[in-house]
Design a protein that fits this description.
- The chain has one domain: Rossmann fold (3-Layer(aba) Sandwich), CATH 3.40.50.720.
- It is globular.
- Helix 1 links the parallel strand 1 and strand 2.
- Strands 3-4-2-1-5-6-7-12 form an eight-stranded mixed sheet, with helices on both faces.
- It is of the alpha/beta class.
C-alpha cells in the first residue's frame, strides 16, 4: 500500500513508519520538525530511517538512502496550500495522522500552537481526505480526553465532555470533526486514544525520559501529586501493533467512524514506576514531591476489549521489560 504518515519524525510516527517500511509499504512521511523539544532527536530518528538530514529543505521531497520506499517532506500540516500542492502528484490508500502538538502542560503556556496544529491542521487533513477520496484516515487521539473520570477502566463509550486541559479539548474536537466528515462524505475514520506511550526514541517531555535524564545527571526528579498517581504505561511496540492492525480494518456501519483505546490495561503507581527506573539505573532517585499540576489527571486506565474483539489486539510488553529496553537505549544514545 501507499501510506502517508504525518509526524513521522515524532516518537510514535517514527516507529510506525519503520514498521510500515519493514512490511514493504511505500510511505510518504511528513513532519515540520518543530522545536517543542530538541530537534536533534527528530533528525536522528530520520537518519535511522535513511533520510539524509543535510538534504532536508522546506516543502521538498527527500528520498531515503536505504532504498526502503520512504519519501520525506518537511511541511507543517497547517500549511493547506502546501498540502494541496503535495497531493497533486500523490495518491494514497491510507493516511496515518500522528502529527500534533502534544503535551498537557505546554498547552497552558502556548495555547495557540495547539489551535493551529491540532485544530486547523486536523481540519486540513480532513479536507485533503475528502477532496482526494482517501479511503481511510487513522488519527491519534489521547487518553487525556477522559479527564478526571472516576469511572475506571476508561471505555470508549464513556462521557468525555469534560476535558481538563486545552490539549485534551483539541483531541476531543478531532474526534467530533472526524465523525462529521465520515457522516457527510463517507470515508472511514479511526481514532486511537493512546495511553502514556514510552520506549526507545521516546519524547523528552514525558515522565520516563524526564526521570532517566535527571537520574543520569544526578538531578532531582519531580513527583507530582506527591506520587499519588497511576498511569497506564504502554510500550511503543504495542502501540505500533495496534496502529498497524487498524490499516486493514473495515468499519461495517454508517458513518464509518470508530474510536479505540490503545493501552496496556495495567495501571502502575507512579512511585512503583520510579522504583523500576531505580532498579535499571542501579541507584535511588532524588525525589522532589510536588502538588498536582494544572491540567493533569490522577489515573489513566484503558479498557482495550473493543480493540481486542475487533482486531485481536493484546499488549505483550510488561512494564519492567519495556523500561529495561528504554533505559538501555537511553544510555546508548546519550553515552551515559
Amino acid at each position: 500500500m501507499k501510506i502517508m504518515v504525518t509526524g513521522c519524525a515524532g516518537f510514535i510516527g517514527f516507529h510506525v513508519t519503520k514498521r510500515l517500511l519493514k512490511e514493504g509499504h511505500i510511505v510518504l512521511g511528513l513532519d515540520n520538525i518543530n522545536n517543542y523539544y530538541n530537534v536533534n532527536l527528530k533528525y536522528d530518528r530520520l537518519l535511522e530511517l535513511g533520510i539524509s538530514t543535510d538534504l532536508i529543505a522546506e516543502d521538498r521531497e527527500v528520498q531515503s538512502d536505504k532504498l526502503t520506499g520512504l519519501t520525506f517532506v518537511k511541511m507543517d500540516i497547517s500549511n493547506y496550500p502546501g498540502l494541496v500542492s503535495l497531493f497533486k502528484n500523490q495518491k494514497f490508500d491510507t493516511i496515518i495522522h500522528l502529527a500534533a502538538q502534544g503535551g498537557v502542560r505546554y498547552s497552558l503556556e502556548n495555547p495557540f500552537v495547539y489551535v493551529q496544529s491540532n485544530l486547523v491542521g486536523f481540519a486540513n487533513i480532513l479536507e485533503i481526505c475528502r477532496q482526494h477520496r482517501i479511503e481511510h484516515l487513522i488519527y491519534a487521539s489521547s487518553s487525556s480526553v477522559y479527564g478526571n473520570s472516576q469511572k475506571i477502566p476508561f471505555k470508549e463509550n464513556d462521557n468525555v465532555d469534560y476535558p481538563v486541559s486545552l490539549y485534551a479539548a483539541t483531541k476531543k474536537s478531532n474526534e467530533l470533526m472526524a465523525h462529521s466528515y465520515s457522516h457527510l462524505y463517507g470515508f472511514q475514520t479511526t481514532g486511537l486514544r493512546f495511553f502514556t506511550v514510552y520506549g526507545p526514541w521516546g519524547r523528552p517531555d514525558m515522565a520516563p525520559f524526564l526521570f532517566a535524564k535527571a537520574m543520569a545527571n544526578g538531578k532531582q526528579i519531580n513527583i507530582f501529586n506527591n506520587g499519588d498517581m497511576k498511569r497506564d504505561f504502554t510500550y511503543i511496540d504495542d502501540i505500533v501493533e495496534g496502529v498497524v492492525k487498524c490499516i486493514d480494518y473495515k468499519i461495517n456501519k454508517k458513518p464509518a467512524y470508530n474510536i479505540f483505546n490503545i493501552g496496556n490495561s495495567k495501571p502502575v503507581k507512579l512511585l512503583d514506576f520510579v522504583t523500576y527506573m531505580e532498579e535499571e539505573f542501579g541507584f535511588k532517585a532524588n525525589k522532589k514531591m510536588l502538588p498536582m499540576q494544572p491540567g493533569d489527571v490522577k489515573t489513566t486506565y484503558a479498557d482495550t476489549s473493543q480493540l481486542e474483539n475487533e482486531m485481536g489486539y493484546v499488549p505483550k510488553t510488561d512494564l519492567k521489560d519495556g523500561l529495561a529496553k528504554f533505559v538501555r537505549w537511553y544510555k546508548e544514545y546519550f553515552k551515559n
